[in-house]
Amino acid sequence: MKQFFNILQYAKPYKNYAIGHIISNIFYALFGALSFVALIPMLDILFEKNTKKITEAPVYEGFSHLKDYYKDYLAYQVNQYAASDPQKALILVVSLIIILFLLKNIFGYLANYFMVFLRNGVVRDLRNKVYKKTIELPLSYFSEQRKGDIMARVTQDVATLQYSMLPALELIFREPLTIIFTVVMMVIISFKLTIFVFIFIPLSGLIISRIGRSLKRKSDRVQKEQGILLSTLEETLTGLRIIKGFNAEQKFNDKFQDSTNRFFNFSNKLLNRQNLASPTSEFMGILVISILLWYGGQLVLVDNTLDGSSFIAYMGLAYNIMVPAKAISRGLYNIKQGDAAAERIQEIIDAPNPLKDKENALVKTGFNAEIVFENVSFKYDKEFVLKNFSLTIPKGETVALVGQSGSGKSTIANLVTRFYDVNEGRILIDGIDVRDLTTYSLRSQLGIVTQDAILFNDSIKNNLKLGKDNASDEEIIDALKVANAWEFVKELPLGIETNIGDAGNKLSGGQKQRLSIARAVLKSPPIMVLDEATSALDTESERLVQVALENMMKNRTSIVIAHRLSTIQNADNIIVMSKGEIVEKGKHGELIAKQGVYQKLVEMQSFE
Asked: Can you tell me where the transmembrane regions are (predicted)?
């Protein structure tokens, strides 16, 4: 239930709809109870030869005599209206019942009307909040999570809440109010019979509640398996070329079928437990009604303390209690099921973000002097991948980082862009620690081109505008020209409006990389971070991209993580790294002359 109350917090912005829902439910429950009580005078007219003749309005004598006062008052009104004609009296009472049921259903509709906006609003806000938190969390969070599981939480778990836990919002006021008003009417008709009823209802409720105890655990297993299933599907679609190339279709098919079989078994157990709820609650309801018939019959036929018409109306009221009681029971089952989904969603919402901006974080609007790495040490897990790394990059210089795979080159890019925070030391831009800046203003000073050209299923224009949303078509074309990409874009059927497909799969590797460079050029930041931007390209594509990179780096400060010699031989400073430490630094010619580590890397032609 704790998670249910957490979800209720998202209903606060919709309090006006909630108030409308509550007021409508009060009248729904009131008219629902009165509609059964209104049956009493009609039954009196039907089953008694002479309607009770009362010529003077009755006097109210207290709560204990409320039932008699109500009957006498109705009889008085009927007598005033219909005189000695029972047919007119019957029409009056039937009209009263129709009006009460009409009012009940009008307010029932209004309650549902207000609830639609409240419920759908909560779902929208919850989904938006989960997505917003997902894109705010650091990359380190996702390195420990399955992508499919995250997708399942944002989509399936929120949908589970929509159809399990959130419908229970409708039960919070409607069903309890219906029960309260009905019980009041039952007490008025027969206090003894009502006491008897409430001895048995808690017993039946206890039996029903025992069935639902394991629902949360079973639901949690289903949702986790759904995450695994989605993750397998996502991996399959991403790596389909490799799967086919290695004849691994059967292996992945077996893996997927294992997951669907587990999902099948877990779902069967969950749904069968849910299906047990309805027949159990219905049987217990009939059992209570049967006992009620027996005891009520005693009061009517043997004790003569209750008249027949009142007993029939009482039975209607008793049934009127069973309907909301059953709805509450079903709602509690749904809350149990939704509890697991809410918990998984809340895990994302409550996940700590170590990279969150400080309260008084500074906003940086430009880059003036230098970037300084001051005794920086960093580890992703247990082993340090950077150790006491110190480097100064003056404004306007191009610094290249080279070294074998695992030497810490890409980590430098991750730290300067603040995808991760340093464990020890500081990174300063113009003398300010990057942790003291707002993340937005820091990244506004940076342009990033990665080894994998990450593009989106949209037009070329919209992909480029990611860096500058208000860019004109002319600015976009200029950026494409700088990136050496306009030559192929202008040949496309729709030019910059051409959709490039999922992850840009309608383009070649070189074309995609040139678009990612154009995106960085359009943003026009003072600092460029190039993370092995040409390593995945063929020779011809590399040549075109290299020209684009040189165009882009003019008059900018650049950090180049190098894979090939052609990328870095003109750099102002080359930093040779090994196991997280600087082993050599200098210009290309100076390092060649040393005939050390750099010379060996050049001979190998590989700066992995």
From this structure: 26-47, 89-111, 179-208
pLDDT mean by block of 10 residues, the chain; 608 residues: 74 88 88 77 58 61 63 64 62 81 92 87 86 83 76 80 74 80 82 76 63 61 76 75 74 85 84 73 73 79 76 78 73 73 83 85 90 92 88 91 84 89 92 91 86 83 86 89 86 90 82 85 86 64 70 81 72 88 89 87 66
Is the Cα torsion angle 287, 293, 294, 299 positive or negative in sign? positive
pLDDT at position 507 is 86
Angle at CA 450, nearest 5°, toward 446 and 451?
165
Indicate the SS3 state at residue 387. strand
Supply the pLDDT for residue 78.
Answer: 61
Question: Reduced to 3 states, what is the DSSP secondary structure of residue 59?
Answer: coil
Contact 416, 371 (CB under 8 A): yes
Intervals of CATH 3.40.50.300 along the chain: 396-407+444-604
Site of tokens 């990174």 = 427
- The structure tokens 């990033």 sit at 448
Residue type at position 547: V
Length in residues, the chain: 608
Quote the pLDDT of residue 429: 93
Residues 6+ apart with CB under 8 A from 407: 577, 578, 579, 580
Q: Are strands 581-586 and 398-403 parallel, antiparallel or unpaired?
A: unpaired
Q: Which 3 state secondary structure label does DSSP give 173?
A: coil
Report the alpha-carbon angle 463-529-586, nearest 5. 155
What is the predicted pLDDT for the residue at 373?
A: 93
List the one residue out of 433, 432, 429 whose CA is nearest residue 421.
433
> CA dist 389 to 382, 435, 474, 499, Å?
18, 17, 42, 43
* Three-state DSSP state, 340: helix
pLDDT of residue 50: 45
Contact predicate 118/21, CB 8 Å? yes
The C-alpha atoms of residue 263 and residue 461 are separated, in whole angstroms, by: 42
d(CA 535, CA 450): 10
Start-end of H helices in 137-190 = 139-142, 147-152, 158-160, 174-189
Helix, strand, coil proportions of the chain in percent (round to 5)? 65, 10, 25
Looking at the chain, the domain(s) classified CATH 1.20.1560.10 span 2-111+122-347
**Listed residue (104, 100, 119) closest to 323, CA to CA:** 104
| Three-state SS annotation for 263-275 | HHHHHHHHHHHHH
| Residue 552: per-residue pLDDT | 72
Q: Give the Cα separation of 482 and 528 in Å (integer).
A: 15
Nearest to 175 by CA among 289, 32, 4, 11: 32
Residue 390 has a pLDDT of 92
Query: What is the C-alpha separation between 500 and 86, in angstroms, rounded?
Result: 81
Instruction: Output the pTM of the full model.
Output: 0.69
CATH 1.20.1560.10 fits 2-111+122-347, yes or no: yes
Report DSSP state, residue 213.
Answer: G
Fold of 396-407+444-604: Rossmann fold (3.40.50)
Q: Which residues contact 215 (CB under 8 A, 6 or more apart)?
A: 270, 273, 274, 333, 336, 337
